[in-house]
Amino acid sequence: MSQSSAPDPVGHALIAYLRGNQATALLVHSNVTDDEDLAASYFFRSLWEMPELERTALQECRGRVLDAGAGAGCHSLELQSRGFQVKAIDASPGAVQVMQERGVREAACHNLFDAPAAGERFDTILMLMNGLGLVGTLDGLERFLVHARTLLAPGGQILATSSDISYLYEDEEGALVININGPYYGEIEYAMTYGDETGPQFDWLFADASIVQDYAESAGYEVEFLGEDDQQQYLVRLTLQQTDRS
């Protein structure tokens, strides 16, 4: 697979891990917390290494699945083993190469907002590992909910995880200290570094459950929360009713 000259720290870290460097890690930069290490091994988790919310999401998949932001393909491979037809997409060329080498049958280098192939529809759009963050911002969430109608089959569903990160803005008394005139507190700016390579800054959305419910219902989806963990992360199902499609 030809390599792009654009920075791809995530992809190169995943390739290094696949080649046997078990200590491979990314350095994660954000505008709200100190730099943190992210072990490449996290992207290669087996089913029983996944959080319960992710295992629940896999259990709730149906039909043809689009695995968005698929990384090293751990969810796609698990679904393939269960007999699902899965298309895995990631914006990282290196991640797509890793998925192909690991046996993901249909892996493509796309971002979330690329137009679908003619006639291509999915019964489930899967967005795990805080995957709703792929939309970037609240404006991106609104845009994605419209775009998803071009991707979903009649009666299709979105299964996504996200987190409420308001706890990052609590003072010592537990009160929220947020600039109500600023951006939504869950809109975070990130960049990734692997070795000497730093990728471009990108937006990532952590949306509290009430925000997701409001935006999804306004866009004509039915909303069902399927679980929450003790890290303020939750799993939501957004269902597009057949009556909503022409």
Quick take:
This protein has 246 residues and is α/β, with parallel strands linked by helices. The protein has six helices and twelve strands. It has a single domain, classed as 3-Layer(aba) Sandwich (Rossmann fold), CATH 3.40.50.
Using brief descriptors, characterize the structure shown.
6 helices, five-stranded antiparallel beta sheet, 246 residues, 23% helix
Task: Report on the architecture of this protein.
- With 246 residues, the chain is an alpha/beta fold.
- The chain is built from 6 helices and 12 strands.
- The protein has a single domain (48-184, 204-244), classed as Rossmann fold (3-Layer(aba) Sandwich).
- Helices cover 23% and strands 28% of the residues.
- The strands form 2 sheets. It has a 7-stranded mixed sheet with strand order 5-4-3-6-7-12-11, sandwiched between helices. Strands 1, 2, 8, 9 and 10 form a 5-stranded antiparallel sheet that branches.
- α1 runs parallel beside α4 (93-102).
- The longest helix has 10 residues, at 9-18.
- The radius of gyration is 18 Å and the shape is globular.
- The termini are far apart.
- The model has no long low-confidence stretch (mean pLDDT 91).
CATH superfamily: Vaccinia Virus protein VP39
Query: Can you tell me the CATH architecture?
Result: 3-Layer(aba) Sandwich
Shape: globular
Q: State the strand order across the main sheet.
A: 5-4-3-6-7-12-11
Tally of domains: 1
In round numbers, the mean pLDDT is: 91
What structural class do the secondary elements suggest? alpha/beta
Q: In angstroms, what is the radius of gyration?
A: 18 Å
